[in-house]
Automatic annotation (TrEMBL):
Pfam families: Cytochrom_C_2. It comes from Roseococcus suduntuyensis. GO terms for cellular component: periplasmic space. GO terms for molecular function: electron transfer activity; heme binding; iron ion binding. Binds 1 heme group per subunit. Residues 1-20 form the signal peptide. This is Cytochrome c556.
C-alpha cells in the first residue's frame, strides 16, 4: 500500500466524519467506504496468515485499519441508521438504542489491533495468524448485533 493512500485513510479517519456531520448521506458513504477498505485489508492479511508468509509488510495495512477505527462510534451519529430515508446503510438501530454495548464492543477492537500490529512487526507468522483470527472475531462481535445482513 502506498504512503499517500495510508495518509489519505488516516486523514479520512481523523477528519472525515467531523467534516461531514451535517450531511447524513456523506457520513454513511464515508463510513461504508472506510469499512470496505478495512474489509479489503483484513482479507489481504488473512491471505498472508493462511500462507504463513512474512507478516511485516502487513504492518501498513494494520496501521490503516487502526487509523479508521479511531473514535469509531463517532462515525454513527444519530440519523444515520438503517431505514432512514435516502440512506444506504446496514447500521442497525441497536447502535443507538444499546449505545453503551456498541461502544464497549467497538473499544474491544483496539487491543486486538494493537496485538495484530505487534505480531505483524515481529515477523512471527504464527503470532500474526493468531492475531488475524482474534481481530476477525472482534469484527464479528460488532457485526452480529449491530449490522444487518
Amino acid at each position: 500500500m502506498s504512503k499517500p493512500l495510508l495518509i489519505g485513510l488516516g486523514l479520512l479517519a481523523l477528519l472525515g466524519t467531523a467534516a461531514a456531520q451535517t450531511n447524513p448521506a456523506q457520513i454513511v458513504q464515508e463510513r461504508r467506504d472506510g469499512l470496505r477498505a478495512v474489509g479489503a485489508h483484513m482479507e489481504a492479511m488473512a491471505a498472508i496468515a493462511r500462507a504463513g508468509s512474512d507478516p511485516r509488510p502487513a504492518a501498513e495495512r494494520v496501521a490503516a485499519v487502526q487509523a479508521f477505527f479511531v473514535n469509531f462510534p463517532d462515525r454513527f451519529p444519530a440519523g444515520t441508521a438503517r431505514g432512514t430515508a435516502g440512506l444506504d446503510t446496514r447500521a442497525l438501530p441497536e447502535i443507538w438504542t444499546d449505545r453503551a454495548n456498541f461502544e464497549r464492543v467497538a473499544a474491544a477492537l483496539g487491543p486486538r489491533l494493537e496485538a495484530l500490529n505487534t505480531a505483524a512487526q515481529s515477523g512471527d507468522a504464527r503470532a500474526f495468524a493468531a492475531a488475524v483470527q482474534a481481530t476477525g472475531a472482534a469484527c464479528g462481535d460488532c457485526h452480529r448485533p449491530f449490522r444487518a445482513r
